[in-house]
Write a structure and sequence with these properties.
Layout lengths: L6 H4 L11 H5 L15 E7 L5 E7 L1 H5 L3 E6 H6 L4 E3 L5 E3 L5 E2 L5 E7 L2 H8 L3 E6 L6 H4 L18 E8 L1 H9 L3 E12 L8 E6 L6 E5 L4 H12 L6 E4 L15 H13 L3 E4 L2 H7 L3 E12 L5 E13 L11 E4 L11 E10 L15 H19 L3 H8 L8 E2 L5 E2 L4 H12 L1 H13 L3 E10 L11 E2 L2 E2 L2 E7 L5 E5 L8 H13 L6 E5 L16 H28 L6 E4 L2 E4 L2 E7 H10 L10 E6 L8 E10 L6 E11 L6 H20 L4 E2 L5 E2 L18 E5 L15 H19 L13 H11 L1
Parallel strand pairs: 1-14, 12-13, 16-18, 25-26, 32-35
Antiparallel strand pairs: 1-7, 2-6, 2-8, 3-7, 4-5, 9-18, 10-15, 11-12, 11-14, 15-16, 19-20, 21-31, 22-23, 24-25, 24-30, 27-28, 28-29, 31-32, 33-34
Helix pairs in contact: 11-12, 11-19, 15-16, 16-17, 18-19
The site of cytidine-5'-diphosphate (CDP) has 24 residues, from helix 15, helix 16 and helix 18.
């Protein structure tokens, strides 16, 4: 019998095991999409519309076709001949693959050149002549819904205006009743602006369709390879068994690599028709102007409150800017994602949420950018409203929250819009963060500073997220239930391979998911290889986004490991000649209860599974699990930001940020901290600088990293991290999602801090990003 290994050597849950994937990624041995080379590969470049709204009167591609090295020029008409000019979106709309009738946003795909070399393909784009007839561009949802506005989706049967969807939830009557009892109504109208996930690796595809066998091997930057395989089968009509999607190493996704983009469809169709592999890799500008954006919600929130600072109800009207096609990647039932989590961390009985979305001449998207579907917007609204309510009622913003929090004993707690929060202790969380930052002293310093003409602000945000989508009774995307899976095979020498339905894009799944198996079976995490992203070699799953991997795929991993642990106990009982009920498994050692010297290791069991089994037992030590979560999980956090605002310039600097996060049981504390730092950086970016905007003609301002300001370590403040661990009670490993939550919670904390510095002047709102000129204008207007 081999000596048992220590828990630290095994590296189960709670250990900061070094990330296995880092060695290959840091040492240049990663395998990204553009690293993959196949013989005879052709290259594709896409011609994009320079105009936001125009009718296409004609396309002349003869000069491009004649260029040496050009194999084909693909237009919408050609795609149409194969029934592929339009494709379905994940929100049940249709989207142009290559424009046939009109272009509806700047950067829309109009034609594609397939050539022997990527430079020839790009050069040939300039030889394509498109005859456009200008149409009036619509760049805001308000303009879009005005009477007489040009119809953007004139191709859509029955579409008589620019409304993309309407959706409401909550109880209107009960909310009106709550408002009738309020002493005051606090109102906030604000815009969470459009931003872009901007993964460092842009999107791309290498489609290799064998014209003889019909086998399509598609290498693709996909956060959801299995779902993409099914959607490809449905859209392109290819038999699903012939489609293999391989999602190699991915340089960041952040929701941007969930939708199916026109370039994927054109490259696959071109490979099928030409019979050679076709590769397309986006440029930075293509990524920023045409792929899945995030946010762009215009929100009006009203909070009914009493003079004692008690919240009675919430009313929200939201208008979203959907761009030209309604292609949010979100669960089918929810037209505005999980925006209705907008009741936040507070206990009040009534809410009514009314949502509308409008088409505009902008790129489509609406992806879950570092948050569960649209929760960042919701969390921002409620945290800004509660802060303003505190000023209006005249109580401290921290006290306002403490008075209205859902109490620990109220969990599981059903919100006014139907979420059932599993667990939490919000009071302890906020009090801990307040103590850490030295809240009372800070308030004193703030008053003293104000007397000297200095503007110090203390911003709080306490958020609750809803992650781990989701239970099959409610959650599907395009009809596919949001379950996920894990397959575990233990080999005779005790080493294992774990195959996942989810797909990592940098989160460290190869490490943390191995740790879950290590925890259950005691096989060292380093002896477990984790495979993901290849649909031929992994079980089905809906993919990685919206902080669902660990709550769903991680749970599947725990469950499948437990199935193997059960079999391991049966084998141990046979080897040790003991009763199965007497076998205990701890740190990879299976022993007879009360006789610890009668033991075998999990490695002994692995060998026995292929050599020495009890009568009638099937050989092997492997299984697969599909996990259907009973509920979402609800991570939360308390964030406090201290800023100083320069009254002359409007420039604000972060002095401190204390972030306390709850993500249940931390599988790998080091990875969790990394995820949180990334999320906080994103939250800071949204509040301070990161912003895609458009001029009146619909030209995208933010088409490169000179205009679209992604923060670096230089601008990013230092974060002070704290943790509570309130395990998710229904969850197999007690873990909740992480990382995204930090982006959900932090923008409100930063903005609230700036507002807090100016609140005594009567300032209640500055739209994000809180640019110095906006701050300065607010001060100017107030004084
Ligand atoms: O879906 P996604 O992977 O983006 O998010 P996640 O499930 O929230 O996890 C992000 C990373 O943090 C993964 O490597 C998780 O396994 C890890 N994590 C953890 O170690 N402990 C937790 N309680 C939650 C996540």
């Amino acid at each position: 019998m081999a000596a048992p290994t220590t828990p630290a050597e095994i590296g189960g849950i709670g250990h900061s095991v070094q990330r296995k994937e880092d060695a290959r990624l840091i040492e240049g041995q990663g395998n990204f999409l553009d690293d993959i080379e196949l013989p005879n590969t052709l290259h594709m470049a896409i011609l994009r519309s320079p105009l936001a709204h125009a009718r296409i009167k004609g396309i002349d591609s003869s000069a491009a076709t004649a260029l040496d090295g050009v194999v084909a020029v693909v237009t919408g008409d050609l795609m149409d001949q194969h029934g592929l000019a339009w494709m379905p979106t994940l929100s049940g709309d249709t989207q142009a693959v290559l424009a046939t009738d009109k272009v509806r946003y700047q950067g829309q795909e109009v034609a594609a050149v397939i050539a022997t070399d990527p430079y020839i393909a790009t050069d040939a784009l300039e030889l394509i002549e498109v005859d456009y007839e200008d149409l009036p561009p619509i760049t805001t949802p308000q303009q879009s819904l005005e009477e007489g506005a040009a119809l953007i989706r004139d191709e859509k049967e029955g579409q008589i205006d620019n409304l993309a969807y309407t959706w409401e939830t909550g109880d209107k009557g009960a909310t009106e009743e709550a408002f009738s009892q309020a002493d005051r109504v606090v109102t906030l109208e604000t815009h969470y602006p459009r931003s872009h996930p901007a993964p460092l690796e842009t999107c791309g595809i290498l489609a290799d369709v064998n014209s003889v066998t019909g086998q399509a091997t598609i290498y693709m930057t996909s956060q959801a390879p299995h779902a993409h395989r099914t959607l490809f089968a449905m859209v392109a009509g290819l038999p699903e068994q012939n489609i293999r999607i391989v999602s190699p190493d991915i340089g960041g996704g952040f929701g941007n690599k969930v939708p199916i983009y026109p370039g994927y469809v054109v490259a696959t169709a071109a490979s099928l028709l030409i019979g050679q592999p076709v590769k397309w890799v986006e440029s930075r500008t293509e990524n920023l102007i045409s792929t899945g954006f995030a946010r762009d919600y215009y929100m009006k929130g009203e909070l009914a409150v009493t003079d004692e600072g008690r919240i009675l109800g919430l009313r929200v009207n939201m208008l979203s800017d959907q761009g030209a096609f309604y292609s949010d990647a979100q669960p089918t039932q929810f037209r505005a994602g999980l925006f209705h989590v907008v009741t936040g961390s507070y206990d009040f009985p009534a809410a009514h949420i009314d949502c509308r979305g409008a088409f505009t001449n902008k790129a489509p998207g609406g992806v879950a950018y570092r948050c569960s579907f649209r929760i960042t917007e919701a969390s921002y609204l409620i945290e800004r409203l509660v802060q303003n309510a505190a000023y209006e009622v005249g109580i401290d913003p921290a006290e306002m929250r403490l008075r209205n929090f859902i109490q620990p004993e109220q969990f599981p707690y059903e919100t006014a819009t139907g979420f059932v929060y599993d667990s939490g202790d919000y009071l302890t969380a906020l009090r801990t963060a307040l103590e850490e930052v030295g809240y009372e002293d800070l308030r004193r310093e703030q008053a003293e500073a104000r007397a000297e003409g200095r503007l110090i602000g203390i911003g709080i945000a306490h958020f609750t997220e809803a992650v781990g989508a989701g239970p099959s009774h409610t959650y599907d995307i395009a009809g596919l239930k949001m379950i996920d899976s894990a397959e575990l095979r233990v080999h005779p020498t005790g080493k294992a391979i774990l195959k996942l339905g989810v797909k990592t894009q940098g989160q460290g799944h190869e490490t943390t998911f191995a740790q879950i198996v290590a925890e259950v079976l005691g096989i060292p995490a380093n002896d477990i290889k984790v495979e993901h992203g290849d649909t031929d070699h992994t079980p089905y799953g809906l993919g990685t986004y919206a902080s669902r991997s660990t709550p769903v795929g991680g749970a599947a991993t725990a469950v499948v490991a437990r199935k193997l642990a059960d079999k391991a106990k049966k084998i141990a009982a046979h080897l040790l000649e003991a009763a199965e009920e007497d076998i205990e498994l701890a740190s990879g050692v299976l022993s007879v209860a009360g006789s610890p010297d009668r033991s075998v290791t999990i490695q002994d069991i692995a060998l026995a599974a292929y050599t020495n089994l009890p009568e009638g037992m099937e050989y092997g030590l492997e299984d697969v699990t599909y996990y259907d979560p009973p509920n979402l999980t609800y991570p939360y956090g308390s964030y406090i930001v201290v800023v100083e605002v320069d009254p002359d310039t409007g420039v604000w600097q972060v002095q401190r940020m204390v972030a306390l996060d709850d993500c249940g049981v931390r599988i790998n504390p080091m990875i969790v901290e990394g995820q949180i730092c990334g999320g906080l950086t994103e939250g800071f970016a949204m509040s301070a600088m990161q912003w895609i905007t458009f001029d009146d003609d619909g030209n995208c301002i933010g088409a490169n990293f000179m205009d679209y300001l992604v923060p670096t370590a230089w601008e990013t403040p230092r974060f002070e991290l704290l943790a509570t661990e309130v395990p998710s009670p229904h969850h197999p490993i007690g873990a909740k999602g992480v990382g995204e939550s930090a982006t959900v919670g932090s923008p409100a904390a930063f903005v609230n801090a700036v507002i807090d510095a100016l609140a005594h002047l009567g300032v209640r709102n500055i739209d994000m990003p809180v640019l110095p000129d906006r701050v300065w204008a607010a001060i100017d207007e107030a004084s």
